[in-house]
Amino acid sequence: MLPLAVGTGLGSETNAPMSIAVIGGLLSSMVLTLLIVPVMYRLTNPIDRWLRKFYEGTIKE
Question: Do the domain assignments include residue 22?
Answer without folding.
Answer: yes
